[in-house]
Amino acid sequence: MSYSGGVTNGRIFAMIKKQFLSLCGVLFLGLALSTAALAESAWVSDVFEVTLRTGPTTSNAIQMMLESGTELEILEEDAEAGYTQVRTNGGTEGWVLTRYLMEEASARQQLETLTRQLTSANAEGTSRESQLGAIRGEYDSATRRITELERSEASLQKELAEIRQTAANTLAIDSQNKELQQQLTDTEIQVSVLEQANDTLSGQTTRNWFITGALVLFGGVLLGLILPRMKWQKKSRYDSF
Q1: What is the mean pLDDT of the segment spanning 126-143?
Q2: This prediction's pTM
Q3: Between residues 35 and 55, which one has the greater pLDDT?
Q4: Between the CA of residue 163 and those of 131, 158, 168, 177, 241, what are the distances in Å?
């Protein structure tokens, strides 16, 4: 029984501890939300410098001097004391007189900001004008390049037309050459035929001359045999008288 009672007491203690931790978490979250809600911005007014003190009275020590236009984060405001707790951008916390704070930047700071913006705008304008000039230069260069390409294209088209005309003339000349070559071949064939005919005629003429010579020779031999006999017969006839 004592063991069961010890377990029950332990469970009750654990539940109480859990609820306590939950309550602490809720309180911490509420504190954080309230702090975040108070985390507004303020600027030091157009006075030369104001003091940042450790507390909301003039008897508190001065931590640092804040120049006009310094941006601060508001943490807490003590309306009765006339002080506001703030935090600098560097993380230093302290108290300044509320009357030295403004809800917007000082006129001098706004003027400086506007001056910087104007200078930046002028610089951007100069840069844009320079970029515009560069773009115009590139455009003019591209236009000139296009004109040159168009002229080059026209010249190439003219050369192409001349090449086509030359090719057509070449084809015509080639056709004429083929016709002349065919005529030359036909002429060579005719010449060959005539040469063969001439050779044939020459052979026949040679044979005719050979036959004629043989006949003349044979006739001469016959005359050589006949004439002496005829003379002898005449002589014998004359001798008989």
Answers
A1: 82
A2: 0.33
A3: 55
A4: 46, 9, 8, 20, 113
Contact assessment for residue 44 and residue 56, using Cβ atoms and an 8 Å cutoff:
no
Q: What is the mean pLDDT of residues 213-238?
A: 68
What per-residue confidence (pLDDT) applies to 8?
39
Does 85 score more than 70 pLDDT? Answer: yes
Q: What does the domain layout of the chain look like in residue ranges? A: 8-37, 39-105, 107-208
The arithmetic mean of pLDDT across residues 36-49, rounded, is: 60
At residue 154 the predicted structure's pLDDT band, cuts being 50, 70 and 90, is confident
Question: Three-state SS across the chain?
Answer: CHHHHHHHHHHHHHHHHHHHHHHHHHHHHHHHHHHHHHCEEEEECCCCEEEEECCCCCCCCEEEEEECCCEEEEEEEECCCCEEEEECCCCCEEEEEHHHEECCCCHHHHHHHHHHHHHHHHHHHHHHHHHHHHHHHHHHHHHHHHHHHHHHHHHHHHHHHHHHHHHHHHHHHHHHHHHHHHHHHHHHHHHHHHHHHHHHHHHHHHHHHHHHHHHHHHHHHHHHHHHHHHHHHHHHHHHHC
The length of the chain is 241
| For range 174-186, the mean pLDDT | 84
Domain 39-105 has CATH 3.30.70.20: no
Side-chain-facing half-sphere of 222: CA atoms under 13 Å: 6
Burial class (CB in 10 A: 0-12, 13-18, 19+), 86: buried
One-letter amino acid at 91 equals G
